[in-house]
Specification:
This protein is 78% helix and 0% strand. With 250 residues, it is mainly alpha-helical. It is an enzyme of class 2 (transferase). Its cofactor is Mg(2+). Its EC number is 2.7.8.26. It catalyses: alpha-ribazole + adenosylcob(III)inamide-GDP = adenosylcob(III)alamin + GMP + H(+); alpha-ribazole 5'-phosphate + adenosylcob(III)inamide-GDP = adenosylcob(III)alamin 5'-phosphate + GMP + H(+).
Length: 250
C-alpha cells in the first residue's frame, strides 16, 4: 500500500493524470522522488503511440510537442517561465528569489516560452520515428527525471520553503540518491548502446549548468529551478536526437 501511495504522490504532484488522493505524510513521501521517473515512462509511451499513428508530419510533430505538456499539466514549464523571468532581471539573489515567488508572468517569461515552443516544435518536425528512436526517447524522458530527483536529494536548497524543499526534507536522501544514481547510470549505458550517447552528453551538460546557475544566481535550487532544468534538458536532448538522426547514427 505504501508503494502505491508513494507512486500516487509523485503522479499527483508532477502530472495531470488522475490518481487516488492520499494525505501526504512521512511514509509516502520518503521515496516519492524515486517514483518521479515513472512519469517519463507514461509520457514516452504516449509519444511512441503518436509516432506510430499514420498522421501527417506536422500533426505528428504537434503531438510530440504537446504530449509532455498535457501529461504534466505544464508544471515544469511554469518553473521554466518563472526562472527565465528571474534570470532576466539581473537583480541580486534576493530579488531573483522574490521573482520566483511572484505568480505573475513577466515579459521575459512569455518571450522565452514562445521561443522554447518554436524550437521544440521545429525539432519535432525533424524527428523520423522508428521503434529504436521511440525506445531511446522513452529512456531520455526517464533519465531527465532521474537526474532531477537526484539533484533535489543532492544539491543545496535556496530556501527553506517551497516544493523542492518539501520533497527534499521528506525524502530519505541516502536511499533516494543511491536509487536514482544507479537508475541514471543504467539509463545512460542503455541510451549509449542504442546510439544515443549525444543525448546522454546533452543531459549531463545541462545538469552541470543547472548546478552552476542555481548556486551562483540563487544560492541553491528551488522547485522552479528544477522545472527549468527539466525543460532545458528535454530540449537539448531532443536537439541531440535530431542531430544523431541527421548524422546517420540512428
Amino acid at each position: 500500500m505504501i508503494v502505491l501511495q508513494t507512486i500516487a504522490v509523485a503522479f499527483a504532484m508532477f502530472s495531470a493524470i488522475p490518481v487516488p488522493q492520499f494525505d501526504w505524510n512521512e511514509k509516502n513521501m520518503r521515496y516519492a522522488m524515486c517514483a518521479f521517473p515513472l512519469i517519463g515512462v507514461v509520457i514516452g509511451a504516449a509519444w511512441c503511440v503518436c509516432g506510430a499513428l499514420p498522421l501527417p508530419g506536422l500533426a505528428k510533430a504537434a503531438g510530440f510537442a504537446l504530449i509532455p505538456v498535457w501529461i504534466t499539466g505544464g508544471i515544469h514549464l511554469d518553473g521554466y517561465a518563472d526562472t527565465c523571468d528571474a534570470l532576466s532581471s539581473y537583480g541580486d539573489r534576493e530579488k531573483k528569489l522574490e521573482i520566483l515567488k511572484d505568480p505573475h508572468c513577466g515579459a521575459f517569461a512569455v518571450i522565452r516560452l514562445c521561443s522554447y515552443f518554436l524550437a521544440y516544435f521545429a525539432l519535432c518536425t525533424c524527428v523520423s520515428f522508428t521503434p529504436r528512436v521511440g525506445v531511446l526517447w522513452v529512456l531520455a524522458l526517464v533519465l531527465e527525471r532521474a537526474l532531477s530527483g537526484l539533484a533535489v536529494a543532492s544539491f543545496p536548497m535556496a530556501k527553506n520553503t517551497g516544493l523542492a524543499h518539501t520533497f527534499a526534507t521528506a525524502a530519505d536522501k541516502t536511499v533516494v540518491r543511491r536509487v536514482l544514481a544507479v537508475l541514471a547510470a543504467v539509463l545512460c549505458v542503455g541510451m549509449a548502446a542504442l546510439g544515443g550517447w549525444a543525448l546522454v552528453l546533452a543531459a549531463l551538460v545541462v545538469l552541470w549548468r543547472y548546478h552552476a546557475v542555481s548556486w551562483k544566481q540563487f544560492g541553491g535550487i528551488t522547485g522552479d529551478l528544477a522545472g527549468w532544468f527539466l525543460q532545458k534538458a528535454e530540449l537539448w536532448m531532443l536537439a541531440a536526437l535530431c542531430a544523431c538522426q541527421w548524422g546517420g547514427l540512428l
